[in-house]
Amino acid sequence: MQTKAYIFDVDGTLTDSRQTIDPKFKEFFLKFIENNNVYLVTGSDYPKTVEQLGDEILHKVNRSYNCAGNSIWEKGVEVSTSDWQLSNEARDWLLRELYRSKFPLRTGTHIEDRPGMVNFSIVGRGAGSEARQSYIDYDKSNKERKSIADSFNKRFKKENIIAQVAGETGLDIIEIGKDKQQVLDDFAEHDIMFLGDMMQVGGNDAPLAKAIKERNNPNDKCIWVKGYTHTWSVLKDIT
């Protein structure tokens, strides 16, 4: 019998988007970690994950795969990182999309470099809750992020990079194969339960979910959750 590994996305799976973990869920989740092999895989960098989950959780999980696995942390220590950089041509293309967008608000930090990836946001990383919600509503109506991602992927296919819808307001841009699916190499001897909120086509949880399904282990399971309360409900059913 293989060891069971529980792999969790963070934003939208263990917390509300860009928010800190609910205190009662945190108490439950810490107890879950004590009795299970728990791993995190998120597009966010490590400091943001600490901000959302706290040091206690980050020091108790087996491993945190940040920046889609391009920055790997164990017990507060970074054990691996990527030095990949986005090309100037792709960066300039994103800036032109930022200029062309009809969404009226700009809050700064629209292109954020992270280890092994770039996050792109029309509204910007400086957006407060009202600005974020305005863009979320706009994007639901206009599907702007998917449109930008589709155009980017067509334009830069030869550069071996891909844009994926991530979180509620952004896109993750990454080398093909260097998204969340790359962490699967560490779980050859594990049965997996993976929980994430972005498993739709083009979402940043989709590559890992697809790779898990393709390995055809009948004991694996991928669960597309609708928020941390859904995650909590799933975990209650298995404890």
Question: Can you put this structure into words, describing what you see?
Answer:
The radius of gyration is 17 Å and the shape is globular. The protein has 239 residues and is of the alpha/beta class. The strands form 2 sheets. Strands 5-4-3-2-1-10-11 form a 7-stranded mixed β-sheet, with helices on both faces. The protein has 2 domains: 141 residues, Rossmann fold (3-Layer(aba) Sandwich); 88 residues, 2-Layer Sandwich (Hypothetical Protein, Haloacid Dehalogenase-like Hydrolase, Chain: A, domain 2). The chain contains 8 helices and 11 strands.
Question: Average pLDDT, to the nearest integer?
Answer: 95
Strand fraction? 15-25%
Series of secondary-structure elements, N-terminal to C-terminal:
EHEHHEEEHEEHHEEEHEH
Q: What is the CATH H-level superfamily of the largest domain?
A: HAD superfamily/HAD-like
- CATH architecture title of the largest domain: 3-Layer(aba) Sandwich
Number of domains: 2
CATH topology of the largest domain: Rossmann fold
Whole-angstrom Rg: 17 Å
| CATH classification class of the largest domain | Alpha Beta
| Separate helix tally | 8
- The strand line-up of the biggest sheet is 5-4-3-2-1-10-11
Count of distinct strands: 11
Helicity level:
25-40%
Coarse structural class: alpha/beta
Q: What is the global morphology?
A: globular
Q: Which ranges are low-confidence, i.e. pLDDT below 50, for 5 or more consecutive residues?
A: none
The largest pleated sheet is described as: 7 strands, mixed
Span between termini: 19 Å
